[in-house]
């Protein structure tokens, strides 16, 4: 079964149609990029797939579980990093990740181990006691990714994961995404073609709320 299967997604804001007719699949081991300009509907699509925004139409299955019928069951398999996550500047990395682990219903006894694993997988082993507010943007983004994987979801959803970072930080986050995809399917959004070329196996280009096309990176390279 696909990790994500979305069919015919639409979202209206009042009478304004933000996205329509969006269908996609994410397979294990894969990084799928949603590429499009600002306002194309990327965040709207990812909010719906992550269970944070109700679609006006369409169906979403996460690991075979219907997200709209069984949101709690489906969300266990999902990790999500929004474009503008709330930043808990006054918490330490450890405090925040413990909090995130509890939100994901990890049993109290298993939290320490889950947090340590999430830190080691995101290069935060030595940052546990640091206040989030004093970290660099690149490290803050690692914390955002660590909270998205702390419950070992099948899928992680990353909305514009490298926006606002400097070139070195961008490279580090892209490398991290390429490592993580061996254990979690990844869907990310970006308005930058180079981001897709550096991290993705397949790309879906969207514009004005519609799919323009979906293709593999290999085919995309051959077209050019
Ligand atoms: P992207 O993430 O690709 O920049 P969005 O999904 O944020 O695009 O936005 C898609 C469209 O939906 C845009 O036209 C945007 O103005 C509109 N939109 C997004 N969020 C809202 C909202 N909360 N209320 C009204 N319109 C919205
Ligand atoms: P290759 O045969 O060279 O691995 P693929 O056809 O598997 O290429 O991958 C297509 C695109 O996906 C490549 O342009 C590459 O940037 C990207 N890619 C390849 N492997 C990975 C990976 N493990 N994680 C993320 N992206 C990858």
UniProtKB/TrEMBL annotation:
- GO MF: ATP binding; ATP hydrolysis activity
- Keywords, sorted A to Z: ATP-binding, Nucleotide-binding, Transport
Tell me the domain of life: Bacteria
Domain named ABC transporter: residues = 4-224
Calcium recorded as keyword: no
Protein family per UniProt: Belongs to the ABC transporter superfamily.
Protein name per the record: ABC transporter ATP-binding protein
Q: What is the lineage of its organism?
A: Bacteria, Pseudomonadati, Pseudomonadota, Gammaproteobacteria, Chromatiales
Which span of the parent protein is shown here?
Answer: 4 to 227 of 317
């Amino acid at each position: 079964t696909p990790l994500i299967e979305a069919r015919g997604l639409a979202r209206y804001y009042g009478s304004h149609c933000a996205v329509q007719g969006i269908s996609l699949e994410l397979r294990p081991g894969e990084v799928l990029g949603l590429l499009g300009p600002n306002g194309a509907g990327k965040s709207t699509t990812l909010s719906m797939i992550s269970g944070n925004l109700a679609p006006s139409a369409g169906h979403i299955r996460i690991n075979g579980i219907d997200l709209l019928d069984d949101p709690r069951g489906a969300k266990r398999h999902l990790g999500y990093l929004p474009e503008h996550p709330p930043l808990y500047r006054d918490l330490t990395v450890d405090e925040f990740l413990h909090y995130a682990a509890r939100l994901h219903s990890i049993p109290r006894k298993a939290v320490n181990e889950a947090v340590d694993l999430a830190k080691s997988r995101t290069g935060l082993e030595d940052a546990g006691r640091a206040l989030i507010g004093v970290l660099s943007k690149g490290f803050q983004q690692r914390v955002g990714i660590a909270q998205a994987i702390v419950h070992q979801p099948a899928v992680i959803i990353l909305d514009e994961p490298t926006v606002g970072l400097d070139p070195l930080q961008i490279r580090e986050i892209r490398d991290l995404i390429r490592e993580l995809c061996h254990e979690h399917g990844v869907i990310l959004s970006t308005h930058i073609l180079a981001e897709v070329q550096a991290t993705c196996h397949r790309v879906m280009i969207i514009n004005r709320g519609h799919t323009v096309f979906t293709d593999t990176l290999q085919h995309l390279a051959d077209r050019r």
